[in-house]
Amino acid sequence: MERILVVDDDRDIVRLVSSYLEKAGYEVVTANDGETALHVLRRDQPQLVILDLMLPDRDGWDVARLVRSDPTLAATPIIMLTARVEDNEKIVGLEIGADDYITKPFNPREVVARVRALLRRSQLQQDIPAPNVLQVGKLLLNVGKRELTLEGEGIDLTPSEFELLKVLMSNPGFVITRDELAEKALGYRSGSLGRTLDSHIKNLRRKVDLNPEKLSFIQTVHGIGYRLRDQAT
Fold this sequence. Notes:
Blueprint (H helix, E strand, L loop, with lengths): L2 E5 L3 H13 L3 E5 L2 H11 L3 E5 L7 H10 L8 E5 L4 H10 L3 E4 L4 H20 L5 E4 L2 E4 L4 E4 L2 E3 L3 H12 L4 E3 H9 L9 H13 L9 E4 L3 E4 L5
Parallel strand pairs: 1-2, 1-3, 3-4, 4-5
Antiparallel strand pairs: 6-7, 7-8, 8-9, 10-12, 11-12
């Protein structure tokens, strides 16, 4: 049984989300503050975390940073649960390493659907064989070690950024539709992601473009999707 950690200082929200997840067949562990969440994460090793941003001690951003910096937890999918809706705050969360955002008020069925999609993606990553190393121009992606280097320099990627880049680097020069890219890398179609896919791509461009003033390594094909240029310049 897959284990989900639900973190929120609002105990009614924890009970509501836990109830729907348990009915869907998941084991649920809970925490009401950031310190407890970190303790439960290390003790129970959940397969996914639903994390509120506004917590009484360590906020959700701080917890997410610590998760992504811990090698034993870094691959754990994180869904941010928050009443904040400003785009810049969502971008900060995605840069830190959140895989998805759900804003309050929310439909608990949507939470279950997002959980299923992220867990399905994680399972597919484990089941589908992939080349150990992908190279496109100056980019080198070690799939087994989940490491990216650009001209020999290491670049840190969030789990979602890694999966998106892996799909793009597996198809250099080819246009991949938004739906196809979101489904292969993130586990569900782009229509359900809103601006999340674009935010991930924007963050990736910041990391892999040597000269932002030149043509981006990750190209937008308007009305269709994205393409990775087959040679870096």
